[in-house]
Specification:
Immunoglobulin-like, binds 2-acetamido-2-deoxy-beta-D-glucopyranose, Gal_Oxidase_central_sf, 2 domains, 3 helices, mainly beta, Methylamine Dehydrogenase, Chain H, signal
Length: about 550
């Protein structure tokens, strides 16, 4: 038993304190533009080691299927090419998450602008696990007559919860001009709970009319954090109760069409204390008519962070400032526990048209933020945000863009179109160019993981083989278990990083890893494991966490 041998060896306890070994080799951080997406990739989710799924509105896209425009695409991370995905219903401004059995579900959408698409407002689109690297033989299953949500939901949020089901939160019923004037102020589940009857949610009533895509996270005790407009709560699914938390300070609002972004900071053993970070958005009142708003009004540069323990809530939100204001920013967790702040605009608002001075064809936002920053969670307050060594792109990623970490460990950026149809030759056109932001480790020799089990149980120890380049052997080690999330509208549904304690064998070739204690710390379902040594991260290896069963699944592991 390798586990027994390892326990007798000197223990390297892996923590996630920041130790940035400034790489002197390789290219450093850099953007690479490669390939075109054929649709506006306003939603993206990694579905395998080689494939991302993109969704767009059903409109006049260049990528075609069956002689009409496509509104779904498979993006091949190896070839940097898009192929059309056969979608039945309109997935415009939908959401999505994986279930505990590895199936991805695309949720909600809109009434289509072209006759080939069906109404997607209560849509459920099923993507079963796909083993073919090119997606051959894989596709979406839809049966709108019998398989649909109870409610119509456009701009809803979804997240995988502790029993492996998806919680679906908020949204609106139909087209509204800017704000949420036709709200769906409830939550429901897939597979359905409560006999399929949605639960009303007071938070959503209180935060109209700018409460779309509520920024929501499954906490390590199974409760749910939610932010809408400038309000925040903890929702207890088991007792159906909402506990109000302090408002986001200084009138800053963070949900669509006033989009900021939010993330659950990496969770660390043994206590997995949750901390929430919310950045960007705007302090503009949500009571003003859109026609009085300007594309030139500065967005908010505020980041607000709170620890979700009784003492942390008592202390309230801690404020820090980004290097520039950002509406529609994105935050991407990196395998080393740092966070990339990227994309968005420095002035204006989300949504298409309505402001008194739209830019280009119909952009409510202007002055794109072209340079990403790094947020280092465990640095002292005031020293956490830096863009030192970060590159600058010239491709605007504003409304209807997406970004996701890939299994290779780089960021895939796509989309942006503040236009109702495909528009070219204007400022802020419909953007089809895909781009990667490559961290420094993409161009150096990296650690590698091999012989990783396909499935890991909670609260268990498992071994993997590692190869660590000799120059890194003195480096600090971190093992991250990650859900890469579903990206749309400045938010990454279900994205998560849980660090795992691990011990390296004396010969440096085997790593013994302790999985998360239970299905609340990491909601059961697919994940990627990344090893970081001295700030050089491996590529990710996909695993199934938990028993892989169809939801709802029972509690697994041990309580913390
Ligand atoms: C774009 O990606 C393709 C496929 O991986 C690769 O062959 C090509 O070299 C890349 N081009 C650039 C400019 O990186
Ligand atoms: C797309 O799905 C439709 C409806 O099921 C079907 O008729 C059509 O043949 C499919 N097209 C492709 C390219 O698979
Ligand atoms: C949140 O917004 C409400 C409504 O505009 C306002 O009354 C309240 O003062 C705001 N809270 C904070 C902390 O700014
Ligand atoms: C928004 O913030 C700016 C800069 O701090 C301030 O001048 C302005 O009064 C604020 N507006 C509102 C509505 O709070
Ligand atoms: C935006 O582009 C569409 C399609 O080309 C066009 O019909 C519309 O007039 C344009 N709007 C503006 C404000 O330029
Ligand atoms: C948009 O216009 C540019 C410049 O004319 C051209 O290179 C590009 O291919 C066009 N893109 C699309 C999607 O038509
Ligand atoms: C996972 O569960 C969903 C919902 O019951 C079902 O549609 C799907 O087929 C299941 N997938 C697998 C791989 O069992």
């Amino acid at each position: 038993m390798i586990g027994n041998i390892l326990r007798a060896l000197p223990v390297v306890v892996l923590t996630a304190h920041s130790c940035r070994a400034a790489p002197t080799e390789g290219k450093g951080w850099h953007f690479v533009q490669n390939g075109t997406t054929g649709i506006v990739a306003l939603e993206s989710i990694i579905v395998s080691d080689t494939l991302a799924v993109f969704f767009d509105r059903a409109t006049d896209n260049p990528l075609q299927i069956d002689g009409h425009p496509a509104w779904g695409a498979l993006w091949n991370l190896e070839t940097n090419t898009a192929s059309p995905l056969n979608v039945t219903t309109d997935a415009f401004c939908a959401t999505g998450s994986f279930l505990s059995n590895g199936t991805m579900v695309s949720i909600g959408g809109h009434t289509p602008a072209i006759p080939e698409a069906k109404d997607g407002r209560n849509g459920l689109r099923i993507w079963e696990p796909c083993d073919d690297p090119n997606g051959e033989g894989c596709g979406l299953f839809e049966d709108p007559e019998t398989l649909h949500m109870a409610e119509t939901r456009w701009y809803a949020t979804s997240l995988r919860m502790f029993d492996g089901s998806i919680m679906i939160i908020g949204g609106m019923h139909k087209k509204t001009s800017f704000n949420n004037d036709d709200p769906t102020n409830s939550i429901e589940f897939f597979p359905p709970k409560d006999g399929g009857v949605p639960r009303p949610l007071d938070l959503l009533e209180r935060t109209l009319p700018a409460n779309l895509y509520p920024r929501s996270f499954a906490l390590p005790d199974g409760k749910i954090f939610m932010a809408a407009a400038n309000q925040t709560i903890i929702y207890d699914f088991e007792t159906n109760t909402e506990t109000r938390l302090p408002d986001i300070p200084n009138n800053v609002r963070v949900t669509n069409p006033l989009d900021g972004t939010a993330t659950l900071l990496p969770l660390h053993p043994p206590d997995y204390i949750p901390e929430i970070l919310i950045c960007g958005g705007t302090n503009t009142s949500d009571q003003l008519p859109v026609a009085e708003l300007s594309s030139q009004t500065p967005a908010s540069d505020q980041c607000s962070r709170m620890t979700l323990t009784p003492e942390g809530i008592e202390r309230g939100w801690e404020i820090e400032r980004m290097l520039e204001p950002r509406i529609m920013p994105e935050m991407i967790l990196l395998p080393n526990g740092e966070i990339v702040i990227i994309s968005g605009a420095q002035t204006g608002y989300a949504a298409i048209s309505g402001v008194k001075d739209p830019v280009g064809n119909n952009s409510n936002a202007d002055h794109p933020a072209f340079t990403p920053s790094i947020y280092t969670p465990d640095a002292p307050l005031g020293q956490r945000i830096s863009n030192a060594g970060m590159p600058t792109t010239d491709i605007a990623r504003i409304y209807h863009s997406s970004v996701t970490l890939t299994p290779k460990g780089n960021l895939l950026l796509a989309g942006s179109s503040p236009n109702t149809v495909v528009v070219n030759g204007t400022q802020y056109p419909s953007e089809f160019r895909a781009e990667y932001l490559n961290p420094p480790y993409m161009t150096v020799e990296r650690p590698q993981l091999s012989n990783v089990p396909k499935q890991i149980a909670f609260n268990s120890e498992f071994s993997v083989d590692v190869s660590v380049p000799s120059r890194l052997t003195q480096g600090d080690l971190k093992v991250a278990l990650m859900d890469l999330g579903f990206s749309t509208h400045g938010f990454h549904s279900s994205s998560r990083l849980v660090f795992m304690d691990a011990q390296l064998s004396e010969d440096g070739k085997t790593l013994s890893i302790k999985s998360p204690p239970n299905n609340r710390v990491y909601p059961p379902g697919p994940a990627y494991i990344f090893l970081t040594v001295g700030d050089v991260s491996s590529t990710g290896v996909r695993v199934m966490v938990g028993n892989g069963a169809t939801p709802p699944v029972e509690d697994q592991g041990v309580p913390i």
